[in-house]
Design goal:
26% of the residues are buried. Strands 2-1-3-4-5-6 form a six-stranded mixed beta sheet, with helices on one face. The longest helix is centred in the C-terminal third of the chain and has 20 residues. The chain contains nine helices and six strands.
């Protein structure tokens, strides 16, 4: 807890005073432009990677960045998506997977088979990964020894992207032309972000042209 206490003291003493006006505005409401759906993995920090500020991203996270398709069941992820689309009127929805994802690794390596008695929720949750195999992407030599796992993680992004578009609120917003949906893959080792190109049916470096000109 000491690390958290030090960080909080720095926030209160240095950061908050400099940005007090900004936080005052945020205290009255939020108008995020982006819904960001990512994994719960502690190594994935959207605001750090994207340079966004408080109020920019409306974030929902879960193990494996899954979009459950559970009929009439209610879960926090799909409820958050619905709220973001219908109430906050976000303009963009981004689903972001990442390298070395533990949820996908559990299925890929068959090394982690959660006991259904001790971890019934984890056991059930991992069933959402199965769709990834249907969309497994070509191996990328740049991923080295982890190429097989990375191809399945990318496949999971494609699978969950389809589930995201099938959400009623998302489908309506897409049909009305008030929402864009994107699928990303973030590589922790290199900091590289890729985007799934639906027309080409593959992932490609995101913002490559813009970065190369800088």
């Amino acid at each position: 807890m000491d690390k958290l206490a030090v960080g909080y003291r720095k926030f209160r003493a240095e950061i908050f005073p400099r940005r007090q006006k900004e936080f005052h505005l945020l205290a009255e409401g939020q108008q995020p432009e982006w819904l960001f759906i990512s994994c719960s993995d502690s190594r994935v920090v959207p605001d750090l990677v994207l340079g966004t500020d408080p109020g920019d991203l409306f974030i929902t996270r879960n193990a494996g960045n899954m979009i459950p398709m559970t009929g009439n069941d209610v879960d926090g992820c799909t409820a958050t998506i619905e709220y973001a689309i219908e109430v906050l009127q976000v303009r963009h929805a981004i689903l972001c997977g990442h390298s070395d994802c533990g949820a996908i690794k559990a299925i890929y390596d068959h090394k982690f088979a959660p006991d259904s008695d001790r971890m019934p929720h984890v056991h059930s949750w991992l069933s959402h990964v199965e769709q990834a195999f249907e969309h497994q992407q070509p191996l990328d030599p740049a991923d080295g020894d982890a190429a097989g796992l990375a191809s399945l993680i990318r496949g999971n992004v494609v699978a969950q992207l389809g589930n995201l578009k099938a959400q009623p609120s998302v489908a309506r917003a897409l049909a009305e032309g008030r929402l864009t949906v994107r699928g990303w893959y973030y590589d922790i080792l290199t900091g590289r972000m890729e985007e799934y190109d639906e027309e080409l049916g593959r992932f490609r470096p995101w913002q490559q042209d813009e970065i190369s000109r800088k």
